[in-house]
């Protein structure tokens, strides 16, 4: 074989490391988007699953969700040999305290959401997740003393106007939407305090383990009142209830895989899939009514979200440009 000259090498350049890195980054981002679409899409279709569990009431559904989620998480931890991580988390008082609070916040969210779906209020539930980003911004201001940019203030102000309009539309404060937005927003803030110290499955396992005694008590109470359906409606209903563990854990695993591959901006944009899917299901498959006043209220919310997303993208691009201009090693 002949020796390759410098001119030949220049005319037939081999792929450089930066090129490979860019290609790998694009592939990772594409995978992250797919996982994100899977997670938020499955969360968006949750109303259909909960309606399959009727005539079980919201308390029985959530109690089963807690118990079966814990069982499914235990199986995953065993399969992945993750009991060491679990033991380390259990020994950390700060992690245990934080995740215990998170557990009670998420059960409030679950109870409210299942109640909304099973009582024909899926549209209002979707509203809660539409305004959740605005609540998260407010939490940043109130708790973390963050300073909002002008567009963020504008989005929050428009969101407040939307709540007022929807209050008149519903004839009452849209409490389902507000409880969902507040509970999930505070839940996200609390989980952020843990950071990367525990993975998604370990976190969900601890949260559900803390809630399990209460879930068992709720199951006993429902049984004593003659309202339990788990063992009363045949094998099909039993396995639908038992599948709550899978239905809860799989989107969470998808979300974890997506969050590890995408920027916070990417995740922030994808999260709107869930309420959009919920909203479409509510007005098409479930036939829930949308009056003109509610369309106006929802439209105002969407305007606020467009402003918030615009600010998010502009800020992200500016930050990216500054990082690219920064000297290497600075």
UniProtKB/TrEMBL annotation:
Residues 31-167 form the EamA domain. InterPro entries: EamA_dom (IPR000620), EmrE-like (IPR037185), RarD (IPR004626). One of its GO terms (cellular component) is plasma membrane. The chain crosses the membrane at residues 33-54, 66-83, 95-115, 127-144, 151-168, 174-190, 210-232, 238-257, 269-289, 295-314. It comes from the Bacteria. It is a multi-pass membrane protein. Keywords: Cell membrane, Membrane, Transmembrane, Transmembrane helix, Transport. PANTHER family: ACYL-MALONYL CONDENSING ENZYME-RELATED, SOLUTE CARRIER FAMILY 35 MEMBER G2-RELATED. Belongs to the EamA transporter family. This is EamA family transporter RarD.
